[in-house]
Specification:
It comes from Pendulispora brunnea. By secondary structure, the protein is of the alpha/beta class. The chain contains 20 helices and 18 strands. The chain has a 5-stranded parallel β-sheet with strand order 2-1-3-4-5, sandwiched between helices. Strands 9-12-15-8-16 form a 5-stranded parallel β-sheet. A two-stranded antiparallel sheet has the order 6-7.
């Protein structure tokens, strides 16, 4: 399979710090790119598929805050970790309120770096399973696209509860857009100019969840070389969004309940009580009532969270919205991929609207992106869709093979694993070749389209016998 090594971008004007961080992250198994200032960092972001950015605050040309704003404008789910000195911690905290994932205070140790990087990449991975935020446009209300009965009910609830302090619990399958609804609640309230802080509870190790939510004081545990505010403090005056709330361990649920009821808490290792004004929105794709029955979720916390419950319908329950969503995604990927796909053939649209979509909106978005990437015609056709859609089944479908090849495989001596390996190699070769063709043989841009690192693509090209060079997508190498 195509390599899936995560790609980390380090942006810092100190050569020694770039060298140290790069060496550590490379040893930890990441592909690392480095930039000496924010301007170079932004250029690398445009050229590569970056999974995580670690950037200094103070840099020439383009500073860390500008880099943060520009990067999040391009990719709202991109985790960005700020590097700060003691004198600029307040600026780093401000960066968190603007959407940075976390910050590191110099001097930092390798375990702290390792923890934050792992946590950030796990959050990025989980975000990839949810529907991504979209911009309001035709047919959109609250920044949400659709006019089906289920969404009409959702709009009515949002109109009533958005500008209130009421706690909201959003439930629904992965990929239905729970974060989008949480953002709508915040953006249409009087808190919209205050921070919107999100935490994916499933991405935080259980032993770190308390310090993540409530912060910690210096010396509270090994590695706590400075004091650090938690997400409740960062969200002061604004909204705290706790995604995957069902993953919080039972022993932490008591402390969370107290923070919600009393609007106060103490940092880990601290004695000072901190009061906050925070509107909490929680979300889960799990059945909390079943967790309560199993003893892994507190009933009193559930009642405190579920003051207003919003259930998001699965995409298969709102099939009439699929054409609108496809129209939005076509416009998005035409711009990003420099294509001009104007629509979908009726037969292909029939398949798209009748498919069960187990991955919901996120799956639909991925399908449209891949179809636009590899389409050479103005309207998407049935053959541009993946096999599972053409078969109408979400289950694993065989890699398409010519009838003669299939009969040869069945009659040969090789086992199933060998045939699958050959078929996967053929599919990989097609994907890589078409990405290279689409980008005029530019390996850097092809790697970005395939969402792998440049180094990973070069290794795969060597393995498949594809030569690097403009227009050489299908040519044999040495």
């Amino acid at each position: 399979m195509l390599p899936e090594r995560k790609q980390v971008l380090i942006v810092d004007d100190e050569p020694n710090l770039r060298k140290i961080l790069s060496a550590q992250l490379s040893r930890d198994g990441y592909d690392v790119l480095t930039a000496e200032d924010g301007e170079q960092g932004l250029q690398l972001l445009r050229e590569h598929h970056i999974d995580l950015v670690v950037t200094d605050l103070k840099m020439p040309k383009v500073d860390g805050m500008t880099l943060l704003r520009e990067a999040l404008r391009e990719d709202p789910d991109l985790p960005i970790v700020m590097i700060t000195a003691h004198g600029t911690v307040d600026t780093a905290v401000e960066a968190l309120k603007l959407g940075a994932f976390d910050y590191l205070t110099k001097p930092f140790d390798k375990d702290e770096v390792r923890q934050i990087v792992a946590k950030a990449l796990k959050t990025r991975q989980l975000a990839g399973e949810e529907a991504s935020p979209t911009e309001p446009g035709a047919g959109a209300r609250f920044g949400i696209i659709g006019s089906s009965p289920g969404l009409t009910e959702l709009y009515a609830v949002l109109e009533r509860v958005a500008d209130t302090p009421t706690t909201v619990l959003i439930t629904g399958e992965s990929g239905t857009g729970k974060e989008l609804v949480a953002r709508a609640l915040h953006d249409h309230s009087s808190r919209k100019d205050k921070p919107f802080i999100k935490v994916n509870c499933a991405a935080i190790p259980k032993e770190l969840i308390e310090s993540e939510l409530f912060g910690y004081e210096r010396g509270a545990f090994t590695g706590a070389v400075t004091s650090k505010p938690g997400r409740f403090e960062l969200a002061g005056g604004g909204t705290l969004f706790l995604d995957e709330i069902g993953e919080i361990p039972v022993e932490m649920q008591v402390k969370l309940l107290r923070a919600l009821q009393e609007s106060e808490f103490e940092r880990v290792g601290g004695i000072k009580t901190i009061r906050v004004d925070v509107r909490l929105v929680a979300a889960t794709n799990r059945d909390l009532e079943k967790l309560i029955a199993h003893g892994s979720f507190r009933k009193d916390l559930f009642y405190r969270l579920n003051v207003v419950g919003i259930r998001l319908p699965a995409l298969r329950e709102r099939a009439t919205d699929i054409p609108l969503l496809i129209e939005h995604f076509l416009a998005k990927f035409n711009e990003r991929l420099k294509k001009s796909v104007v629509g979908v053939e009726p037969e292909a649209m029939d398949l798209l609207t009748t498919y069960s979509w187990p991955g919901n909106i996120r799956e639909l978005e991925n399908v449209v992106e891949r179809a636009v990437l590899f389409s050479d015609v103005p309207r998407l056709r049935v053959q541009d869709l993946p096999p599972e859609l053409r078969s109408g089944s979400p289950s694993v479908s065989p890699v398409p093979m010519a009838e003669a090849d299939l009969q040869a495989a069945l009659s040969s001596e090789g086992g199933m694993k060998e045939h699958v390996k050959v078929a996967m190699s053929r599919l990989e070769r097609e994907l890589v070749s078409r990405a290279l063709l689409q980008t005029g043989g530019n390996v850097t841009h092809a790697a970005r389209l395939l969402k792998i690192s440049r180094k990973g693509l070069q290794l795969k090209m060597k393995e498949l016998g594809l030569r690097e060079g403009a227009g050489g997508a299908g040519e044999k190498g040495e």
